[in-house]
Design a protein that fits this description.
This protein is α/β, with parallel strands linked by helices and about 230 residues long. The chain folds into 2 domains: about 120 residues, Rossmann fold (3-Layer(aba) Sandwich), CATH 3.40.50; about 100 residues, OB fold (Dihydrolipoamide Acetyltransferase, E2P) (Beta Barrel), CATH 2.40.50.1020. The protein has 7 helices and 17 strands. Strand 16 and strand 17 form a beta hairpin. The relative contact order is 0.09.
């Protein structure tokens, strides 16, 4: 389920954007939920930790979309932030809060679909799944639902928000299968979904659910480089 928040003090603009998002997601068969907010204060009062994608205006009267995003980033570092604004001069400031894209409202009809395609690629949606057999059943698990994989000898535990799946497969095989899908091996026993990394420090990797894993020293530089490249910072 893709949780999308929209914030714009102009009700007409917010409702139009909501309709475009719904039409796009339905066309891609993406399960989604849309929450629309007509003020920054209403947005901040919501549980923004559950937000995967925030589409936000910048100039909302006395409220500033840059400041609002900075507050949200303190509890949700993983969300994708896209500004939809009528003013181009705010674009550089958007990158101070790691905006993924900045669309002018006049260009929305032309740029919306291609921007959403890029967002979906970043979020590993677009039907990307990891398929495996578990208890004699074939399971296709959306990649965004996988937080990390943990190895025990020749068994691998796939950790998701709701359940842990144990498979008879080596961690090396899984790492190879997921290497080009936003996953990185941080230790001989761990493969991590970079979408869920919220903090990297002193060989420790904190995930969005609060799990802390320790990377091996010999892999640390490659892990950091892979993460920065995946984020687009390199």
């Amino acid at each position: 389920m893709l949780n999308i928040f929209i914030c714009d003090d102009d009700k007409g603009s917010a409702d139009k954007l909501s309709g475009m998002v719904s039409e796009y997601c339905n066309s891609k068969n993406i399960q989604h939920r849309i929450d629309v907010f007509y003020s920054g204060s209403d947005l901040l009062n919501a549980d923004t930790r559950q937000c995967d994608l925030l589409l936000c205006d910048v100039d909302m009267g006395s409220e500033n979309g840059i400041d609002i995003a900075a507050q949200i980033r303190t509890t949700n570092k993983r969300l994708i932030l896209v500004y939809v604004s009528g003013y181009v001069q705010y674009a550089p400031a958007g990158y101070n809060v790691r905006a993924f894209a900045y669309i002018l409202k006049n260009d929305l009809d032309n740029l919306f679909a291609v921007t959403m395609d890029s967002v979906m690629k970043q979020l590993n949606f677009m039907g990307a799944v990891f398929t495996f057999r578990h208890n004699d059943k074939e399971i296709s698990l959306p990649l965004q639902n996988i937080y990390y994989i943990e190895s025990f000898d020749k068994t691998a535990d796939i950790h998701t928000p709701d359940k842990t799946y144990s498979l008879r497969i080596s961690i090396g095989e899984i790492a190879q299968q997921l290497a080009d899908k936003g996953f990185v091996q941080i230790h001989k026993s761990y493969v991590v979904n970079m979408q869920h990394i919220s903090k990297l420090k002193n060989y420790n990797i904190t995930l969005s659910d609060g799990t802390v894993l320790t990377a091996s020293q010999r892999r640390w530089k490659d892990v950091v480089a892979s993460y920065l490249k995946w984020k687009g910072d390199m």
